[in-house]
Amino acid sequence: MTIRDVELVEALGERYLSYALSTIMQRSLPDVRDGLKPVHRRLLYAMRELKLDPKSGYKKCARVVGDVIGKFHPHGEGSIYDAMVRLAQDFAVRLPLVDGQGNFGNIDGDSAAAMRYTEARLTAAAEALMEGLDQNAVDFKATYDGENIEPVVMPAAIPNLLVNGSTGIAVGMATSIPPHNLSEICDGLIALIRNPHISIEELVQLIPGPDFPTGGLLVESRESILKAYMTGRGSFRLRAKWEVEKLELGQYQIVVTEIPYFVQKSKLVEKIATLLGDKKLPLLGDMREESTDKVRLIFEPKTRTVDPVVLMESLFLHTDLDGRFPLNMNVVDGTGVPGVKNLKQVLEAFYVHRLDVLERVTCFRLDKIDHRLEILEGYLIAFLNIDEVIRLIREEDNPSPIMQTKWGLSEVQAEAILNMRLRSLRKLEEIQIRGEHDSLSKEKKGLVKLLETPSRQQEKIIKEIEAIQAQFHKGTELGQRRTVLADLPQDIVIPSEAMMEREPVTVVCSQKAWIRALKGHTILADDIKYKDGDGEQFLLKAETTDKLLVFTSLGRFYTLTVGKLPGGRGHGDPLRLLIDLAPEEEVVDIFLHSSQSEDVKVLVVSAEGRGFVISRASLVAQTRAGKQILNVEGTKAALCREVGGDHIALIGKNRKLLIFRMDEIPEMARGKGVILQRYKGGGVSDVRFFTLEEGLSWKIGEKTRLEMNLRPWIGKRGQGGKLPPVGFPRTNQF
């Protein structure tokens, strides 16, 4: 035994590379020409060898799997049977290649019965994939043990790669190709053959998108679909197909009849039931499963006033009724090199393969015709010299060489004459031979022209594609489009009540911006505990479906959902963990926002006395980064107040009071605002909205003071104001 020193890195690299190549070429990636992985190709070929054509009887799957393992694919029986089962599932492949009898699983995710119980045979589509194997259409190679041969690739009259799709994970690469409609792929192929310079955009007009076996709605923009097909990478958004069924007394129910591809119905139902039990779908009252061989899921709303679209949007948001299927057309080409191809390249590869198959089948047929013509010409010579032929056969021990020399026959012709039956010596037989000779000669002439003329080859392949298209046209159950091309879903705002259960809570935010939500509205301020050195700042009675608007010193508004705030245990969480506050940013105000307060308007004011009015709905931010509303260059945000009444009173830190009409303040979407009150020193201190006829009030200790004579302080926006009435608080706060 020889021991050789090898670097560990070199040894690992060499062995891992061998493993990776084996995984890529022999297990995970399909061939661009026939769309099959080796296990599928060997499986179909083994079934053909067992003569399991569509017109024959079924045979046990165990018999098929045994032949595949023993002759072609020495791997685990489980993986082979799983591959066979998938080819038979009409909800997994668009065009089944195996006709199964027995339990082959279902859309719920249930496994197929054991292979000793199930039976199978080939389908017409599988026959079309292998049409030409007996006519030298493709190369064959030796099997793993050298005892048999197997096809390197199938002749593939059907563009199986795009029709049935493929998924797989190799080493360092993966493939994911969704199924498509056969008739649409045929239209695209014919257009490509007639116009080799056709653009992918034109192809997408004929092949608008995938066609999944389970149907559903394809809700993807045309631009996104086109980009995916141009690059070979992308994804497609799928949604369940649903409709509203009207019931008595104004009631209704939603019926889901199709679910997205690769979604197991049983797991989907289980997920929805869990969400329903956890009260995360408050708009949904109940769910029923009424499926048979067809999907039928019933969703009942909580009340008949619930909008069906909003209910379904909440389900799409939380469940697999809405999902994406990836596109990654990573395939092995005819030279054995893996790579990502776009739609046009995949169609071109199939067309080139069919050209090669056509040439090989034509040459095979020409060889057969030449052989038959040679024999027929020998027969005709024999008929012209029939008496001499009979004499030679009777008198000579070895007449073949004599016949070859005397009439210039080949050895094949001489042997054919010697093997003729006596009944073939009739005059009628001579006429038939001449007719067959003329017919074959005419066919040969046509085949030679076919090989010499590219345009004839194109038309021949187009006719073959049209024949496949006619066999599986859109009027048939297999050929009709199942996935509906729908418009992009609208951006529907789902109300908070669709996200969680409505419950009363008390929102507590401390001086150091620690926030939490305590259950109930009966909590007393004295019962709330804070960290040492911290204390009460904001205390709001809310519901879990409300939103919390946080106004900061930088003029930004942040939005939090009350139901997602930390619970009452402990001291809550720092506000900075929930939203992206800058280090110098401080909380100015916190207030509630709900669907009932969409039309409420608020006034935002900076410390220098600038401000404007804005609707509360415009303050809601969609991200943690918040929404910039008030520009505060060189100053800070100071106040945010809900608008009400017909006048506004402002008092500054310089103790000057100004009152003017509300309609003098403009409504804006964002900006610095206008000057509300001018100050020589300090800035704004407080703001109060009121109705002039009712007077202006303020608190002094436990009492409330009302001032009706306000004429001295009424002016125009932007003025400085005057000292407030006697008795106004020294804190300059209303």
Walk me through what this model shows.
33% of the residues lie in helices and 22% in strands. It is α+β, with helices and mostly antiparallel strands and 734 residues long. The chain folds into 5 domains: 36-155, Topoisomerase II, domain 5; 239-328, Gyrase A, domain 2; 350-452, Topoisomerase, domain 3 (Orthogonal Bundle); 502-581, no CATH class; 598-734, DNA gyrase/topoisomerase IV, subunit A, C-terminal (Neuraminidase). It has a 4-stranded mixed β-sheet. A hairpin with a 2-residue loop joins strand 33 (696-700) and strand 34. The longest helix has 42 residues, at 343-384. The protein starts with 7 loop residues before the first helix and ends in a 27-residue tail after the last strand. The mean pLDDT is 87.
Protein topology:
Layout: H1 8-28, H2 38-49, E1 59-60, H3 61-72, H4 77-88, E2 98-101, E3 119-122, H5 124-130, E4 140-142, E5 149-151, H6 160-164, E6 166-169, E7 174-177, H7 182-194, H8 200-206, E8 217-218, H9 222-231, E9 233-239, E10 241-246, E11 252-258, H10 265-277, E12 284-289, E13 297-301, H11 308-318, E14 322-328, E15 330-332, E16 338-340, H12 343-384, H13 386-395, H14 399-407, H15 411-418, H16 427-452, H17 454-471, E17 484-485, E18 504-510, E19 514-519, E20 536-543, E21 547-552, E22 556-561, E23 573-574, H18 575-578, E24 587-593, E25 601-606, E26 610-615, E27 627-628, E28 637-642, E29 647-652, E30 657-661, E31 674-675, E32 684-690, E33 696-700, E34 703-707
Parallel strand pairs: 8-17
Antiparallel strand pairs: 1-3, 2-3, 4-5, 6-7, 8-9, 9-14, 10-11, 11-13, 12-13, 15-16, 18-19, 18-20, 19-23, 21-22, 21-24, 22-27, 25-26, 25-28, 26-31, 29-30, 29-32, 33-34
Helix pairs in contact: 2-3, 7-12, 7-17, 12-15, 12-16, 14-15, 16-17
